[in-house]
Amino acid sequence: GENVEQHPSTLSVQEGDSAVIKCTYSDSASNYFPWYKQELGKRPQLIIDIRSNVGEKKDQRIAVTLNKTAKHFSLHITETQPEDSAVYFCAARGVTDSWGKLQFGAGTQVVVTP
Amino acid sequence: DTGVSQNPRHKITKRGQNVTFRCDPISEHNRLYWYRQTLGQGPEFLTYFQNEAQLEKSRLLSDRFSAERPKGSFSTLEIQRTEQGDSAMYLCASSFSDRITNTGELFFGEGSRLTVL
Question: For B106-116, b where at least 16 C-beta lie within 10 A, e where not — what string?
Fold first, then answer.
């Protein structure tokens, strides 16, 4: 089955700097890669996603890039703000799986210091 | 209805007891998922329903676990003879999918935290 690895496990950045989180996946047929943000004690919430027919997607200060050849995808947050502090999870969906059956990475704790 | 709701939010039980969690999905969503999340890890898929049909169960779901969605609306997850290793956050999520619309977006609930003593 699909296996997703996520790095780093913790990331501390100064407010205004950029943050980058990287994930690798094992199943070359995976075709959907969402990113979820989970604040302390809250539910995971989708912040951005990308499908395998696209190489990059942006939404304001966040962007995701996908390299299918290398089987990795990354989340980029620019101009970080204190409210960006949270745990971020990457995930991947295998091509034969239900759209909601995701394999998640272990998460990255992002701390934005003022 | 503004989101997925789960209850109870917290459950502390003794080893060997049975527990049941309930999930009420977003009303127009036809798919409902159960995930388990342990400290420092991402959610792990357990099972999912399309309407009232349980279409897939993970190998993580031992025989002590059973899930139902009797009328295609709310769902229950029961754990029998709980073990300390069952301690985790149990997350429910829902989504809408049909032949035209296939979206991967899962809407998660706040979760039900289980502590087995």
Answer: bbbbbbbbbeb
- Residue B99 has a pLDDT of 62
Which residue is associated with the tokens 């394999």?
A103
Contact A93 B104 (CB under 8 A): yes
Most confident of A29-33, A96-100, B85-89: B85-89
Which residues of A fall within a CB distance of 8 Å from B110? 42-43
| Cβ-contact A65, A52 below 8 angstroms | no
pLDDT of residue A53: 87
Task: List, for chain B, all residue ranges whose pLDDT scores fall below the cut of 50.
Answer: none
Scan residues 62-81 of B and list those with Cβ closer than 8 Å to A.
none
Q: Give which of A43, A49, A54, A104 to mutate to test B binding, by max B Cβ within 10 Å.
A: A43
Residue B14: how many CB atoms within 10 A of its CB? Answer: 8
